[in-house]
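Slide 14.
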Amino acid sequence: QVQLVESGGGLVQAGDSLRLSCVASDSTLNRYAMGWFRQAPGREREFVSLISGRGGSPYYADSVKGRFTISRDNAKNTVYLQMNHLRPEDTAVYYCNVARWDALYWGQGTQVTVSS
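Slide 15: predicted structure.
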């Protein structure tokens, strides 16, 4: 069974940084692109960033471009999201996902709260 486990969230002040991690349950997922999404209270889940299976071709939402960096370490089955210059509007639950051949899988999410 596919499992994705996020960690690294927390409460920070505006301008601070956080690094989120998403550990996949097995290495077979390394061939697939993986992404980060977020959902703020009362809002729909929105795309944040995406990275290819080999770690290239990162793609970002306009709202985080230049502040967030996605990367992956396939030896550790882990995808990271480095978040710099955090803003209060970045407050949300952050989820990672992977679109495998059979289904789209999600982690349980990690809360990021940015105070002004």
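Speaker note: The mean pLDDT is 95.
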